[in-house]
Amino acid sequence: MEKLLNNVHWLLRLPLIGTFIAHGYPILGSNIDMGFIGYLVGPFEFFGALLVLIGAFTTSLITRIGSVMISIIMIGAIYLHLFKWGDSLSAVEWQFLLFCVSIFLVIKGNDF
């Protein structure tokens, strides 16, 4: 049971890492029509996910840095959906879930 408890964090990490590597890699180094900030979205998604992965094997600081990068992206995504594009709250449920998982990892780091 202790082995399960020590590894349950992967249930949060893997979907977060997979989502941001899959979505960040294709736009790495490209502008997504948002000016200068558009060039930061891909690197923040991709390298944030890599840091969350590497942080699991190293220190909480690495996990926290990657999670902050992802949190920033998710704040921007939620803002755009709700206030620029006029979507409803139901349109941001996935973004809000990813934001909450990343904030959890910012707060907890590797201390489970």
List keywords for this structure.
112 residues, mainly alpha, 5 helices, 73% helix, 0% strand, globular
Blueprint (SSEs and pairs):
Layout: H1 2-7, H2 10-24, H3 38-57, H4 60-84, H5 93-108
Helix pairs in contact: 2-3, 3-4, 4-5
- The number of strands is 0
The low-confidence runs, each spanning 5 or more residues with pLDDT under 50, are: none
**Secondary-structure element sequence?**
HHHHH
Strand portion: under 5%
Q: Average pLDDT, to the nearest integer?
A: 95
**What about the largest sheet?**
none
Domains (count): 1
Percent of residues in helices = over 70%
How many helices does DSSP assign?
A: 5
Q: What is the structural class?
A: mainly alpha
**What Rg do the Cα atoms give?**
15 Å
Distance between the termini: 14 Å
Short description:
The protein has 112 residues and is mainly alpha-helical. It is built from five helices and no strands.
Description:
The chain is mainly α. It has one domain (2-108). It contains five helices and no strands. It has helices spanning 2-7, 10-24, 38-57, 60-84, 93-108. Helix 3 (38-57) packs antiparallel against helix 4 (60-84). The longest helix has 25 residues, at 60-84. The protein is globular, with a radius of gyration of 15 Å. It starts with a helix and ends with a helix. 28% of the residues are buried. The model has no long low-confidence stretch (mean pLDDT 95).
